[in-house]
């Protein structure tokens, strides 16, 4: 069961669009729901922040051109701050009308976004599992991979 939707957008810069999200990191600049300067290490922090004994992270990767990524990024930035529980609607709005995401329907449900994304040709799936209970500050643990 899905509980949250977000986008990592790798265009002219790499950002994390985390609408209605609670993730913060002291070293990451953020404006609205967009976190700037996302490196593999920060993405690992983000995924581990969300994964715990009761939830796993299911990531879906789709390769697109820089122009396509920049269009999605501009849409995400234009969304501004998203109210709680509206993450999927903001993600699907940012993707609206941008190929190859035209089959991703507007929805309020992260599960529907996940299912629609799975139908995009070439999508790559990955998963992150954790067993901790409520320890969401992944960057404070010593088992983090180096940059």
Would you kindly provide a written description of the structure presented here, covering whatever features stand out?
The structure is a single chain. With 147 residues, the protein is an alpha+beta fold. The protein has one domain (7-133). 29% of the residues lie in helices and 16% in strands. It has four helices and six strands, in the order ββββαβαααβ. The strands form two sheets. The chain has a four-stranded antiparallel sheet with strand order 1-2-4-3, covered by helices on one side. A two-stranded antiparallel sheet has the order 5-6. A hairpin with a 3-residue loop joins strand 1 and strand 2. Helix 2 (66-79) crosses helix 3. The longest helix has 14 residues, at 66-79. The termini are far apart. The model is unreliable at 141-147 (pLDDT under 50).
Number of strands: 6
Helix percentage: 25-40%
Reported for the largest beta sheet, the result is: 4 strands, antiparallel
What does the overall shape look like? Answer: globular
The order of strands across the largest sheet is 1-2-4-3
Any idea how many domains?
Answer: 1
What structural category arises from helix and sheet content? alpha+beta
User: Would you list the SSEs in sequence order as H and E?
Assistant: EEEEHEHHHE
Stretches where pLDDT is under 50 for at least 5 consecutive residues are 141-147
Q: Report the sheet-strand fraction.
A: 15-25%
Q: Let me know the average pLDDT.
A: 90
Total number of helices: 4
What is the radius of gyration? 15 Å
